Amino acid sequence: MLSRFSALFIYAVAGLAISVAATPVAAPPCDGPGPPPPPPPQNGPPPPPPPPPPPPPPPPPPVRPTNELGQCSIQNQQCCNQVTTANDAQASGLLALLGILGLPGDETVGMQCNPMLGAAGGSGASCTNTPVCCERNDFNGLIAIGCSPINLAL
Question: pTM for the complete prediction?
Fold first, then answer.
């Protein structure tokens, strides 16, 4: 019977040893959250900043009022084959050849101009192309600068 008691005792001690070994042990308490984790590794350079917003659209070109023959001096009345702006390729080429630089791109110019016939407001005023009143027309009709339309219907 002693052998049975010894066997039972051995089994009890072995079972107790197994249960103690299988019991989890709590970790000691920490004094804080600890150091921050390292930053994630970067793959190449950082991304570029976003592009700037587009510039605002340019202001509309100024509109020159229509002149009437009586409001435009005789020497400024021109009949031009073509009226365009200073940034037109043909006009800017002529202006550059004449040494006229720095005009605003929306400046109205007349090309191949002739003086209109007839006095201001007179019945002889006529033009089969584009009648204009130009501020500078001292380039022998090749080009006139600062032109605005003339109303011949008056």
Answer: 0.49
